[in-house]
Amino acid sequence: MSQQVQQFFENLWHDYIQHTPSAAKIHQVLGGGAPIINDHVAFRTFNIAPVNLERLAAHFETMGYEAKGDYQFEQKKLVAKHYEHSDPALPKIFISELLVEEFSDKLQKIVHQLVSQVSASAVEKSNILYSGTHWQISSADYQSLLAESEYAAWLAAFGFRANHFTVSVNHLPGFEHLEQVNEKLKQEGFRLNTSGGEIKGSKEVLLEQSSTLADQTVVRFSDTEKRIPSCFYEFAKRYEEAPNKLYSGFVAASADKIFESTDAKHAS
Ligand code: OOG
Ligand code: NI
Question: SMART domains attached here (predicted)?
Fold first, then answer.
């Protein structure tokens, strides 16, 4: 992997743990300080130029990633794609985008107002992917978004950065099953996302996933500060689709529940 790509992922991780202090602690609990292989990193965006999925994905294509799977989330009004790199040391990338035109005029107006503040030249730099917000939003607008879409509200508050990193349990010494990882995390006091069960997916669909509930951080809105859910950590165990070849896709029904790890309704 080139030094530039390595530096990119280091910067991404550094930004992520500022908003997800539990991820750094979990890294210690599971890996004992040894390096952990990531299965994937996930990003969220709006389907509006210049920040739409394809534009963000262009940075990964420059790094040598290729588009693989397409996913749809009708109820949440989202689509997503995943990207893979030929270097097995590099995580897969999962990018989703909100189908803004499917929401109310009110939501559309707020979101367009935010996106209009992002300069096209900022999107051309790869550090857009750990740049956070490029706008100010009031707590009232945040609440309006939240009423229609947890995803829209999260993105308005946190902007462009890793929504989560994901530990590859297949590459995690000392743990065979995802249940063991979950038990260890609960023993250490971390809260898991139980939407759809602690474990989403199964051996039959070749992918099992679990995640923490997002940490909570103080976000400065234009009028006030609020403590709201930030980012989470995910754990994935993959099964072979052919001898010596692990399944490398995602499972929409499971992903649908993973999205809920940042729901404000869990935070109390
Ligand atoms: C993405 C949720 C889906 C997965 O691994 O299936 C996902 C998100 O919360 O932005 O990460
Ligand atoms: Ni994920």
Answer: DUF1338
